[in-house]
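User: My instructor asked us to take a sequence, write out its structure as tokens, and then describe one feature of it. I'm not sure where to start. Here is the sequence I was given:
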Amino acid sequence: MSYKSFRRDLKDGTLTRRQILGALASAGIAASVFPRRALADVNLTVFTWSGYDDPMFHGAFVKKYGASPQFTLFGEVEEGLQKLRSGFTPDVAHPCTSSVPRWKDAGVLRPLDTARIEQWDNIFPSFQTIPGVVIGGEHYNMPFDWGNESVLYRTDLVELRENSIGLLLDERYRGKMAMFDSAESMAAIAGVLSGAKDPFSLTEAEMPAALAIMKKIHANMRFYWTDTTQVTQALAAGELVAAWAWNAAVVDLKKQGVPVTYMRPKEGIFTWVCGLSLVKGATGSEAQAYDFLNAMLDPESGKALITQYGYGHSNRKSFELVDRARLEELGVADPEEMLKNSLTYRPTPPATKEEMVKMYNQVKLGQ
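Assistant: Let's start with the prediction itself. The structure tokens for your sequence are:
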């Protein structure tokens, strides 16, 4: 980073604490000589997915405090939970609603005070009531982002027989596909393809058939990914011809001019909803935690999320800032309709979840 760009970005408030410290270190300058407002005033650690530490999503926080929070990243919700169980205690975490009950039962979350969330009433009603947001009459999650999971494939390299997630079983493309490294996703896909009544909550009788499907999918995979850039780079290079992917990968590849299609499978497209929760035992500033939540729920944050990543935002006001044609193009124009007409992830009973994780780990180990 040049000195000129460093000064510009610092003035604009678009540098994270990590970037500031890195730039200072490379210049041989100790953080202790840096203005206190840019570093010392921020007492907040956020545990989130890769890509969500970008200042464009919490601009109001940067404007107020002069810097971003400290970020620690995870690649999948189960990985995140295990890190919290091991003793890591950030202030704010970013689980998906389908996993919130599991995180709460593990004792790592505490309730939210929605009265301190300024835009709460502008969250789409269907997101406020989605399973996992409210547990025992208390709110444990502020819905923030939502999107899809489906098969993303190269139209010039795949000869599609039908719009079906069964493409993941097609041996013609063995070693040329990739899967998101998630027990929840793999089990749900296997549940759909094996005809389970509820793919998000497999019964004991349904598990053997689902396990067989998981093994077939595993045999076709080149790798499992935890960062969407792994997928976009491999698809762009032709190393992969198809992958289980999120909306952001579609947006990125189309910007690059790579010929891809995001499948609308006959079985239904999958939809996830994630949000922000407060971590039990956190030692950072609670006031800053709520300021961060408010910044993330701000309509301008939602506009950035929609236009840059192709994901939906939970605040309905965000959609007023994006051209309707662009919303239609991205497939996020009607969030509540999407929830009704898609396979939306929801919480799995604890015992079933544990068995699904066990099955998934066995499959990855080739057992």
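For the description part of your assignment, you could build on this observation: The mean pLDDT is 91. Try explaining in your own words what that tells you about the chain.
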